[in-house]
Amino acid sequence: MTATIADTIYQALSQKIITGDLAAGEKLRQDHIARDFETSHVPVREALLRLEAHGLAKSEPRKGMRVTALDPAEVREVIEMRVALESLALQHSAQNMTPTALKVADRARKDCDEADSMPQWEARNRIFHRAILTPCGLPRLLHAIDDLHIASARHLFAHWRPKWMQRIDTDHAAIIQALKSKDVSAATSILVRHIRRAN
Amino acid sequence: MTATIADTIYQALSQKIITGDLAAGEKLRQDHIARDFETSHVPVREALLRLEAHGLAKSEPRKGMRVTALDPAEVREVIEMRVALESLALQHSAQNMTPTALKVADRARKDCDEADSMPQWEARNRIFHRAILTPCGLPRLLHAIDDLHIASARHLFAHWRPKWMQRIDTDHAAIIQALKSKDVSAATSILVRHIRRAN
DNA sequence: TGGCAAATAATTATCTATAAAAGGAAGTAC
DNA sequence: GTACTTCCTTTTATAGATAATTATTTGCCA
């Protein structure tokens, strides 16, 4: 489990970008970051490249990296992509859904409802969505969905953080219920509605 | 336009992986590649990371990179993802489709039909698919589709290269025709069928 | 002969140093 | 006063060297 330094830096920076701690458009200077992490700039470069791969930063050659902007058009785009891909994943997932997997998902649902801060809720919300989709067994699809969730999370932090309050998510419960009764189309349509309005 | 060295290496390696010149499972050794390109290993590392981001290679920390395998299950997965995302893109694209864009697409279609080798056909086929989808104006979606096309291309090279022969693609023509007459649902269903069977 | 262990080789990850490019400031010509 | 040029600073990109980790081989003992 020897996590590489670049890994650590990538995790830290992506978290900062997601929460808005690093604002859109902000420059990411290699040696400043290197100083912060008490390392050289080489692993920083690696981490920045990974940020770029996940759409969190953009590089202009010889001019450095900047945190990507998240305009409303892209937020809508991400939502439509999530609708398309999460529907697909859920249809496969529902077929493979075991009682065990359902219990795991319901546990994640409860954890999410019980979160007592926005960052905690956001993390647990992602875990819930992943839990209901993981049984699809399509790794590439799940990976793509994860990236979209990261973009969604950025938007959630930017626009909902102040207004957030603890609440029971009825959509989540309804999805679990539909999965339990093997009603795939109901589960899918609730999920689609949920994605479209939760953002 | 100062292309960085890492750029060049990435292009070359990805091309080799797509065409099967670098086989699945093959190790990608940093200093060997560095020697081949007469450079140091640092830009090589960058290129390898980009390969990983596009799903063409996988890294195990401290153990190096390997070209990813392309098992039949993943091929099916990619097809289903393409169906989901290209449908979405086409629906937006059809709405924004200008006569000019249609002409460009039809030109791409003819070029594709006239290709006289498998690699040429593959490149032009990708250009055609991109041409009919680009007007959707959703950059993130197009980018995701591009990555899926790369995976599809690997499969095409692996399984169709010997059997390839020049032919007129009637699906392509039918899609253009449907777009011309603004029949979005017809265009979409032809595209879906096309993706499912062309692979 | 087979299996374990230490040493060796190969390879990756990181660091330090150098080169190249871009951006900005100051000075001069008009 | 404005625009252009040149120099200086900042920052990124690459190279070469070092450290750390893994794989392999060889030698020893049962």
TrEMBL record, chains A, B:
Q: Which Gene3D superfamilies match?
A: GntR ligand-binding domain-like, Winged helix-like DNA-binding domain superfamily/Winged helix DNA-binding domain
Keyword line: DNA-binding, Transcription, Transcription regulation
Give a GO molecular function annotation for the protein.
DNA binding
The highest taxon in the source lineage is Bacteria
Q: Which residues form the HTH gntR-type domain?
A: 3-70
Q: Which SMART domains match?
A: FCD, HTH_GNTR
Among InterPro entries, the record links this protein to: GntR_C, TF_FadR/GntR_C, Tscrpt_reg_HTH_GntR, WH-like_DNA-bd_sf, WH_DNA-bd_sf
Task: Give the protein's recorded name.
Answer: GntR family transcriptional regulator
